Amino acid sequence: MNEELTPQQEAFCRAFAVGGSAAATARAAGYAEGSARTQGWRLLQQREVRRRLNELRSDAGAAKHAFASRMFAQAEALRRKATHDGDLRTAMQAMNLQLRMAQDYGLPMEAILDPAPEDEIPEEASNGEDICGAALPEPESTVSDSANGGQPVARRGVARSGRRR
Fold it and tell me: Residue 93: pLDDT above 60?
């Protein structure tokens, strides 16, 4: 706590730095209901109160940035593991999270744009296998036709739910 502010002023500063109106935060800090609006305005005019608010906001911004950086790093680790394991859906979700965090918290885009090492990027197999090495399943839009010797026949205009488009 700042030694130049009273405990009540410090409480006002902490509540106001989080957000809210001057009157509401003055009431929360223990100022009288009837004078809270005037008291909140008066407190905001004081140099020490403004300085303390700037300190609190700076600390909150630094804490938010540090938290976002840690979460960004965890999303990057998840993206790398998912890419290595061939789970491209999870890798793309992690990358999407990183992009949103970079945008929302002002994190450096260079961290996202740096390409992964060559050995970390799986290549699509050309022998009918997916990137995990498993055989690809039949597309959902085909059915076996006994009149066609059991060969798959494409269904046209049928959505996955079985209803016509």
Answer: yes
Question: 80 in helix, strand or coil?
Answer: helix
56 belongs to a structural domain = no
Q: What's 19's domain CATH number?
A: 1.10.10
Distance CA 99, CA 112 (A): 7
Closest residue by Cα to residue 51 from 9, 94, 90: 9
CA distance 114 to 111: 6
Q: What's the structural domain count of the chain? A: 1
Q: Is residue 70, in this structure, part of any structural domain at all?
A: no
DSSP for 5-19 reads S-HHHHHHHHHHHHS
Structure pTM?
0.44
Is residue 88 situated within a structural domain?
no
Three-class SS of 124-160:
CCCCCECCCCCECCCCCCEEECHHHCCCEEECCCECC
Structural domain of 40: 1-45
Residue-averaged pLDDT of the chain: 74
Q: Is residue 30 part of a domain?
A: yes
Rounded Cα gap, residues 76 and 97, in angstroms: 9
- The larger pLDDT score, comparing residue 127 to residue 63, is at 63
